[in-house]
Design goal:
- Helix content is about 65%, strand content about 0%.
- By secondary structure, the chain is mainly alpha-helical.
- It has one domain.
Length: about 190
């Protein structure tokens, strides 16, 4: 007995033909090129916006404070303008600590002097640029209600920490060389 072709079978055949026509060679799934991503639930969008708002407030506060500070001409010590103590390592040994010049680099960068910021502390200048990026990225997340698509499986926490460590140690080495060379030229 032959199967009876009714309206449901005709509809299924039509859908199958449509899917095969819209599927391209590089799209693994039918309608992969035309489908929109599923809408996130409202609670997820609220959570994303809350986290983005906290990042925007924190990053914006740091950037505003850096803009307010007057950079120290020595290339370090700007944090003393906030009532903090001078760096103990540079006072006792004459060698700057790994974060010496970070506040100065932030202040220089936010006052429109990027070259001087990189000379003061390269890692601090890079961190200031990252903070600016996070500030504007969080603003985008606040408006869109979702995070940007980033291949997090390729950029894992270990790689971030290694990268940050390399930048910090490199900036520290540059800062030590800069301070030691400045001391020899003034003697």
């Amino acid at each position: 007995m032959a199967p009876v072709a009714g309206p449901a079978a005709l509809r299924n055949n039509t859908l199958r033909m449509r899917n095969s026509l819209t599927q391209t060679a590089d799209s693994p799934l039918p309608h992969a090129t035309t489908a929109r991503p599923p809408e996130a639930p409202a609670s997820s969008r609220f959570r994303t916006r809350l986290i983005a708002g906290l990042i925007a407030v924190g990053g914006g506060g740091v950037l505003a404070l850096a803009m307010y500070l007057e950079p120290d001409s020595r290339g370090y010590g700007t944090h003393e303008g906030l009532g903090l103590l001078p760096c103990g390592m540079i006072l006792t040994s004459g060698i700057p600590c790994p974060t010496c010049g970070m506040t100065t680099a932030f202040a220089l960068m936010m006052n429109g002097r990027p070259v001087a910021a990189f000379v003061a502390q390269p890692a601090g200048a890079a961190l200031c640029l990252a903070t600016i990026g996070a500030f504007f990225g969080s603003g985008w997340c606040l408006v869109a209600g979702r995070t940007p698509r980033v291949p997090w499986e390729r950029i894992n926490a270990f790689r971030w920490m290694i990268g940050f460590g390399v930048v910090l140690v490199g900036g520290w080495a540059f800062k030590i060389a800069h301070v030691l060379l400045a001391d020899t030229t003034t003697q």
